[in-house]
Specification:
- Helix content is 24%, strand content 29%.
- Strands 3, 7, 8, 11, 12, 19 and 20 form a seven-stranded mixed β-sheet that branches. Strands 15-14-13-16-17-18 form a six-stranded parallel β-sheet.
- Helix 8 links the parallel strand 17 and strand 18.
- The two termini are 15 Å apart.
Length: 338
């Protein structure tokens, strides 16, 4: 089978790999669509994501959907449309025992170099998956939209960490695909107002297309002072922390969703203390993956987030497009022809 494999910084290849066979407790999936994530771009361009450095070839991809090719248990018929939860928590650590499996210290994640051997991803024609990672898709959810389930789940987890947003004024800083999906999810959850920000015009247009109330282009406009009940910082830029805190009301909530680069970073934090703002982190997701599937099955409002679709053989061009937020949103690969 063909697979998209990164061998080092700038070294992306189409390798011919043996088609896998499912072991007990696994199913074989023929992948159809895969979304390109920022981590895929980092592995391709830099050979690392933060502290996770490539030590062996890695099949990229963790935003993957497809159809059942072989379920040895006979539970799922061939051709069943499925999404794949990319995380495998250990089930043994204190975090798993406390029910916060998304921060499991031993978790493995598709398409990740966090451990060695690396956890191979899904930018390939086939992959074997643990049965408990399979989610059967509703008939109302096409695979071409279901590919948004993983990044949407990240946004939904951030909203959950905020304590819910029904009736709230919500600010999302950074209008990349996850930021826009978080904003769209906030609207769906009954937020009174949802604003998004970005340095670029193109992502703000996509945000308006999914129904946010207002956008702010950083450098051209200012945010109102102490206006928002909840802020989701999705850019991962430490310089955005101070202005975001300033825009949050006293005793409001700010969730840090964007991942900071390794090492010390300056940030203006005085408002955190003076206004008693709750500053919370958000990492990946757990059961929100199922919530994301349900939301996508019920509406097409988030479809504008997907701006480009490429065949797997055009993956290098797809990566280059995905790396330009001034002209793209979520870029998707077609992994097989059915």
């Amino acid at each position: 089978m063909k697979a998209l494999v990164v061998h080092g910084a700038g070294d992306l290849r189409f390798d011919e790999l043996p088609a896998p066979s499912p072991e007990p407790g696994q199913v074989l999936v023929r992948n159809t669509h895969g979304g390109i994530c920022g981590s895929d771009l980092h592995y391709y361009r830099h050979g690392a994501v933060g502290a996770f450095t490539l030590r062996e070839p890695l099949v990229l991809g963790h935003e993957v959907v497809g159809r059942i090719e072989n379920d040895p248990s006979g539970t799922l018929p061939t051709g069943t449309a499925v999404a794949i939860h990319p995380a495998s928590p250990c089930g043994q650590c204190p975090e798993c025992g406390a029910g916060v499996r998304n921060v499991c210290r031993n978790a493995r994640y598709f398409g990740s170099a966090a451990s060695c051997p690396h956890t191979q991803g899904g930018f390939s024609e086939y992959m074997t998956v643990r049965q408990d990672q399979i989610r059967v898709l509703p008939a109302t959810l096409p695979l071409s939209r279901a590919v948004l389930a993983e990044p949407l789940a990240v946004g939904l987890h951030a909203l959950s960490r905020a304590g819910g947003v029904a009736g709230a004024k919500v600010l999302v800083c950074g209008s990349g695909p996850i930021g826009i999906l978080a904003a769209g999810a906030a609207k769906a959850a009954g937020a009174e107002e949802v604003w998004t920000t970005d340095l670029l015009e193109h992502p703000l247009k996509i945000a308006l297309d999914v129904g946010v109330d207002r956008t702010v282009r950083i450098g051209n406009e200012s945010l109102p002072d102490q206006y928002f009940d909840v802020a989701i910082e999705a850019s991962g830029a430490s310089v955005a922390v101070g202005p975001t805190l300033a825009a949050v009301r006293r005793r409001g909530v700010m969730v840090q969703l964007g991942m900071f680069a390794p090492g010390p970073r300056p940030a203006e934090l005085s408002a955190l203390v003076a206004k008693e703002i709750d500053f919370r982190g958000a990492f990946r997701f757990d059961t929100e993956f199922d919530d994301a599937i349900a939301l996508l099955a019920g509406t097409d409002v988030l479809d504008p987030v997907i701006t480009h679709t490429f065949d797997l053989t055009d993956a290098v061009a797809a990566m280059d497009v995905a790396a330009d937020p001034g002209s793209s949103g979520k870029v998707v690969l077609r992994l097989s022809d059915r």
